[in-house]
Every structure is written in structure tokens, then in C-alpha cells.
Design goal:
- The protein is globular, with a radius of gyration of 17 Å.
- The protein has a single domain, classed as Vaccinia Virus protein VP39 (Rossmann fold).
- Strand 6 and strand 7 form a beta hairpin.
- It has a 7-stranded mixed β-sheet with strand order 3-2-1-4-5-10-9. Strands 6-7-8 form a 3-stranded antiparallel β-sheet.
- The chain starts with 5 loop residues before the first helix and ends in a 5-residue tail after the last strand.
- It is α/β, with parallel strands linked by helices and about 220 residues long.
- The chain is built from 6 helices and 10 strands.
- The chain binds S-adenosylmethionine (SAM).
- The site of S-adenosylmethionine (SAM) has 19 residues, from helix 1.
Length: about 220
């Protein structure tokens, strides 16, 4: 994707190299209760909906979104993660996986009436959030339901923050199984920041906190604001 900024290219490369080991993150014992609640919650949130899944990765969440959804259009920037996603037990008549950039989502015809992104918000630089959200909102039907889930920072469970840059974005030092080392942008926004980011576009907004995760749900205003 030619227009990605250098940090965005690094993020893409990091997740391509991490694809085979990615889902180990979902094995952390202390997080199992939260994860079970989120899986059940997401299946209900998208009942009867057409879902645009942004940065779907290895498709960990896709079968849960698809459980009662009419359609799921899932995309990611990496073929390496998509190759794993395509092995998930989903109905191929209702679920499609494709290559795509979260900053330029394809607009389906008719447009999806909902969207989901797991663990993507935290990787978007604060100054890029308005551009990302504008592109997402353009791709969806008026009144669409949008759900983001992501990590809270929990000392002892989260990878420590290595530094905060001049823009207020936080970075972690991560090492993959192949020994390669990566500096990864990972933000831990407060509920007030989440609400403030979407409020100008939203008819309703709700932030829920779990022990290890946050969940943001909002509905798009029916007329652009
Ligand atoms: C933390 S993983 C989340 C994967 C999945 N949503 C989940 O919750 O398990 C972040 C994902 O973003 C993808 N990604 C990175 N840059 C992207 C971009 N510009 N557009 C779409 N996906 C991107 C990576 O390939 C990776 O799969």
C-alpha cells in the first residue's frame, strides 16, 4: 500500500512476521473470563447485521461476529494473517476475507450497517484517528453500529510502555519468536478520549470497561455532522 507512512509500514511488517504466533496472545490465563464475555457479547451485537471487520488479522473474532450476522466482510493488510483467517470455520457464503487498508476501506454495495475492529484503535497514531474514522464512516450506512475493543494497560499483564513520543503516542519494545525486535505504537486511551473522538459523529456512545479490555460502541448519526 504505497501511501502508508513509515510507522504504518513497520506495523504491517511486524504483524506479517507475527502471524503464526499471534493467537498465543489469547491464551493468557488471567484474561479468559473477559474474552469469553466479549465473544458472547459480539455475537449478539451483530445479530442480523452486515459487518465490516477492519484489520481482522488471523480472524480470531470473525467466527463470533459471524455467528448471527447476515454477512461479514473482513479485511487486513497482510496476506500472512489472512491465510490463517481463511482456515477458520465460517460459512463461506456469508463471510469474505480480503486484502485491504484500514485507512481506505472498500465501500460495499449496499454498504455494511455495522463495523468491528479488535485491537486496531491502539495502533492508530492519535493524530491519524480523525482520518481513519472519517474513512470508516464513509464506508458505512447511516445509523451504523460500530464496535471497537482493545487493551487496557494492566501492570504485570501488559507489555510495559517504553516511551511516549512528542505527539502523545506510546510505544512498546516487542520481540518475536524469530528473535527480531520491533518498536510498536500501542496507545491506551482513557474512556473520555474514546468518547471525545467519536462524539461528533455519533447519535449514541457507550464505553464499557472490563478488567483487561475496553469496549467502545457507538451508532453513526443518520445525517453527517
Ligand atoms: C493487533 S492485530 C489485530 C488482529 C485482529 N483484529 C484481532 O483482534 O485479533 C492488528 C492487525 O492490523 C493489521 N494491520 C496493520 N496495518 C493495517 C492497515 N493499514 N490496514 C489494515 N490492517 C492493518 C495487521 O496485519 C494485524 O493483523
Amino acid at each position: 500500500m504505497a501511501h502508508l507512512t513509515p510507522p504504518a509500514v513497520e506495523l504491517q511488517v511486524y504483524y506479517a512476521r507475527r502471524a503464526a504466533e499471534y493467537e498465543a496472545i489469547y491464551d493468557k490465563p488471567e484474561r479468559q473470563g473477559d474474552l469469553a464475555r466479549l465473544r458472547a457479547d459480539l455475537a449478539e451485537a451483530f445479530r442480523g447485521r452486515s459487518v465490516l471487520e477492519i484489520a481482522c488479522g488471523t480472524g480470531y473474532w470473525t467466527p463470533h461476529l459471524a455467528r448471527h450476522a447476515v454477512r461479514v466482510d473482513a479485511f487486513d493488510i497482510n496476506e500472512e494473517t489472512l491465510a490463517i483467517a481463511r482456515t477458520k470455520a465460517v460459512d463461506p457464503a456469508r463471510v469474505r476475507f480480503a486484502l485491504g487498508d484500514a485507512f481506505a476501506p472498500t465501500i460495499a454495495v449496499p454498504p455494511c450497517d455495522s463495523a468491528f475492529a479488535g485491537f486496531w484503535w491502539s495502533h492508530v497514531a492519535r493524530r491519524d484517528l480523525p482520518r481513519f474514522l472519517a474513512g470508516l464512516h464513509r464506508a458505512l450506512a447511516p445509523g451504523a453500529r460500530i464496535v471497537f475493543i482493545d487493551n487496557r494497560y494492566v501492570a504485570g499483564s501488559s507489555t510495559p510502555v517504553a516511551r511516549t513520543d512528542a505527539h502523545g503516542d506510546t510505544w512498546q519494545a516487542r520481540t518475536l519468536a524469530d528473535g527480531s525486535r520491533h518498536e510498536v505504537l500501542k496507545n491506551f486511551p482513557e474512556p473520555t478520549e474514546l468518547e471525545a473522538a467519536v462524539r461528533p459523529h455519533a447519535a449514541t456512545v457507550e464505553v464499557r470497561l472490563f478488567d483487561y479490555y475496553w469496549r467502545l460502541e457507538y451508532t453513526l448519526a443518520r445525517a453527517p455532522r
